[in-house]
């Protein structure tokens, strides 16, 4: 198979805006799955509502397009009932850390084996460009015309605190690294999180005068650095990318099965 064989081509052209980074994330994900040689019937992809959540409509394997913020709750049900399936959950700022924030921290705490992809474009793009929990201070949005004063979540630090056993960050500029990190996340025997920094030129870029997609991707090139680099020591404002956490702990579904077997024994 090739990466394109995992696409539902009848749903193209896609609905994302020109220059949106979410298509790059889809590309990286499909390449990761193709490299792993997984079959379509092994895979389930779950999403909620938003620009990012459209991704489930474009993949040609089992998919659930669910309620806003509840993607991880649906995915938990899928994994508990069919633990042999490989579950991927694609979320945007809101689905992951606003309305879906409670589900996120508890899925991480339980260490359920699934991959959560947080597509971070720092804005609510589908509903008109409102600020999100990932926007950050000083950002202009339709709901913050005089600049946002709410501090943003750090997806990596939040995931660490909640107990995720694999945590990584990549950007749409570093697409080969993103594919590699996704492969590691998909094969991790526990709850894995990949934060994918993704440009939104239509709302975030335009409102904050960051230019178009090319300029925003250039920003990822110049404002990020590998974990532990000398550049980070010299400039602490740089955003680190790579694998932050990779450890093994008892996985929830396996522990649940052990309990059931014990009770039936």
From TrEMBL:
Keyword tags: Oxidoreductase
GO biological process, one term: cellular respiration
Gene3D superfamilies reported for this sequence: 3.40.50.970
GO molecular function, one term: oxidoreductase activity, acting on the aldehyde or oxo group of donors, iron-sulfur protein as acceptor
Keyword Oxidoreductase: yes
Segments forming domain Thiamine pyrophosphate enzyme TPP-binding: 49-195
Oxidoreductase among keywords: yes
Pfam families: TPP_enzyme_C
Domain of life: Bacteria
Protein name (Swiss-Prot/TrEMBL): Thiamine pyrophosphate protein
Organism of derivation: Candidatus Moduliflexus flocculans
């Amino acid at each position: 198979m090739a990466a394109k064989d995992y696409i539902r081509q009848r749903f193209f052209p896609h609905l994302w805006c020109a220059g949106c980074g979410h298509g790059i994330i889809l590309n990286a994900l499909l390449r990761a799955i193709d490299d792993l040689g997984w079959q379509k019937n092994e895979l389930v992809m779950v999403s909620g509502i938003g620009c990012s959540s459209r991704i489930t409509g474009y993949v040609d394997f089992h998919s659930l397009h669910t309620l806003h913020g509840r993607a991880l709750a649906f995915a938990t049900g899928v994994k508990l009932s069919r633990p042999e399936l490989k579950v991927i959950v694609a979320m945007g700022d809101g689905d992951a850390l606003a309305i879906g924030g409670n589900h996120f921290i508890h899925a991480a705490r339980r260490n359920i084996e699934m991959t959560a992809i947080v597509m971070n474009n720092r804005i609510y793009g589908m509903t008109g460009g409102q600020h999100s929990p990932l926007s950050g201070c000083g950002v202009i949005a339709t709901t913050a015309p005089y600049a946002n004063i709410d501090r943003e979540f750090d997806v990596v630090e939040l995931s660490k605190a909640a107990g995720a056993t694999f945590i990584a960050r990549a950007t749409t500029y570093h697409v080969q690294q993103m594919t590699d990190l996704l492969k590691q996340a998909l094969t991790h025997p526990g709850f894995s999180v990949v934060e994918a920094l993704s440009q939104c030129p239509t709302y975030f870029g335009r409102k904050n005068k960051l230019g178009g997609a090319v300029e925003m991707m250039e920003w990822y090139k110049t404002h990020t650095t590998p974990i532990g680099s000398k550049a980070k020591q010299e400039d602490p404002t740089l955003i680190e990318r790579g694998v932050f956490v990779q450890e093994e702990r008892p996985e929830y579904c396996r522990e649940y099965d052990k309990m059931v077997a014990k009770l039936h024994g």
